[in-house]
Amino acid sequence: MTINNYQSPITKVKKFFQGELLPLLANLRFAILLLLAIALFSISGTLIEQGQSIPFYQTNYPEHPALFGFLTWKVILILGLNDVYRTWWFLSLLILFGSSLSACTFTRQFPALKAARSWKFYDQPRQFEKLALSAEIETGSINSLLPALQKRGYRIFQEADTLYARKGIVGRIGPIVVHASMLIILAGSIWGAMTGFLAQEMVPSGQTFQVKNIIDAGPLAEPQFPKDWSLKVNRFWIDYTPQGAVNQFYSDLSVLDKEGKEVDRQTIYVNKPLRYRGVTFYQTDWGIAAIRFQFNNSPILQLPMAQLDTGGKGRIWGTWIPTKPDLSEGVSLLTRDLQGTLLIYDTAGKLISTLREGMSAEINGVRFKIVEVVGSTGLQIKADPGIPFVYTGFGLLMLGVIMSYVSHSQIWALQEDGLLYVGGRTNRAQVAFEREVIDILDRLKTPAISEKVAIAPTSLASET
């Protein structure tokens, strides 16, 4: 007789999944290793600047000497440490950790919940000896147990001379909620990394703009780009302290639809952004965009101002203003902020005048008047569609942790041969549960009680 041991590829894959892969994924140590790896690379993404240019990494992480003896700009770029959260291996770690959570949930948590929801009556006195807490009462009845158990919130099942009561089933649901919340957080993180983007814009006061300067974006982020609406900077201004330091800077922004109609308007400042269609506009910086001025009775003219390199000694903006039509003569104008004095220098570098907004002076034979110093607002624009999922996941995580602290307690009772056998167990707060059971027994209205309390040799961990 020949035995056919042939197995189809589907059967082999199924056996491999159930016999080797699934137990590995559900293994607690494996999940902890994955979590530690995710935490380690997340820390590296915090310590190493993300999304910078190659020259930046070449300057800050040179090959000689290498940071910690190995961390150079080449290592950072090859491993993708300049954009950790979008690398294929980091996303793979998240997916693998999510698979581990799912495997643990379906192989352990759901069966534990199913076991907690089902029950069986104890109809043999010897069954009570295996419980963590048991007592034998010479006089008493099951009916006398009912009021005490109901008062403490137990759900009671009774059949003839046997009784089963339980409470705290929510404590068994808690771990499932925790795992589900972590899966939602992981899904939100992955979705945000794939579909989010980051942009920066420096916009002069009074101008309308669309988001164009995208500095970082996921591979699926294009649908999130603002295309059929734009923003207008109605006004930008700065509040200064009495000492002249910047106290706060503000931007009055209008959201315009594709026809140019205003659909929203808000004033933003640091820690108070504008949100529209999933895109958030943060106030992060400021600058000086231009100077508006007049010569004698001429129309108001405007010239841009550029930030000068001061070698780290502060921020200064400057421009050159011609005082003759043929550009043969002119003056240089410098300023530090929107409220400060504007310094005017001649071609020899000599200070010839100082002015503020609204003031005028005679320069090279013409009356020169400062009409306005035009400020520009620095905006950081960010879209992360995964944030609602992450916030929802964290909310469920806190709820699940609280639920997990609820004790799942079970009590059995059997009345046989004039004796009342009572026993129970719980998955946490063992001492409090013992006191509760003893208090229930003490309140039984019986003439005499002879108790025998036995702690099972098995540990609480083994019971759970």
Give a short synopsis of this structure:
Helices cover 33% and strands 33% of the residues. It has ten helices and 22 strands.
Structural notes for this entry:
By secondary structure, this protein is α+β, with helices and mostly antiparallel strands. It contains ten helices and 22 strands. It has helices spanning 9-25, 28-47, 54-60, 73-79, 88-117, 142-151, 170-195, 387-404, 430-442, 460-463; strands at 133-137, 155-159, 162-167, 197-204, 208-209, 214-217, 229-240, 246-257, 262-269, 274-276, 279-295, 301-304, 306-308, 316-322, 330-335, 342-345, 351-355, 360-363, 366-383, 409-416, 419-426, 454-455. The strands form four sheets. Strands 4, 6, 10, 11, 12, 18 and 19 form a seven-stranded antiparallel β-sheet that branches. Helix 3 crosses helix 4. The radius of gyration is 37 Å and the shape is elongated. Residues 445-464 have low confidence and may be disordered.
Largest sheet entry:
7 strands, antiparallel
Strand content: 25-35%
Number of helix segments? 10
Q: What share of residues is helical?
A: 25-40%
Distance between the termini: 48 Å
**How many strands?**
22
Bulk shape? elongated
Topology:
Layout: H1 9-25, H2 28-47, H3 54-60, H4 73-79, H5 88-117, E1 133-137, H6 142-151, E2 155-159, E3 162-167, H7 170-195, E4 197-204, E5 208-209, E6 214-217, E7 229-240, E8 246-257, E9 262-269, E10 274-276, E11 279-295, E12 301-304, E13 306-308, E14 316-322, E15 330-335, E16 342-345, E17 351-355, E18 360-363, E19 366-383, H8 387-404, E20 409-416, E21 419-426, H9 430-442, E22 454-455, H10 460-463
Antiparallel strand pairs: 1-21, 1-22, 2-3, 3-20, 4-6, 4-19, 5-7, 7-8, 8-9, 10-11, 11-12, 11-19, 13-14, 14-15, 15-16, 16-17, 18-19, 20-21
Helix pairs in contact: 1-5, 2-5, 3-4, 5-7, 7-8
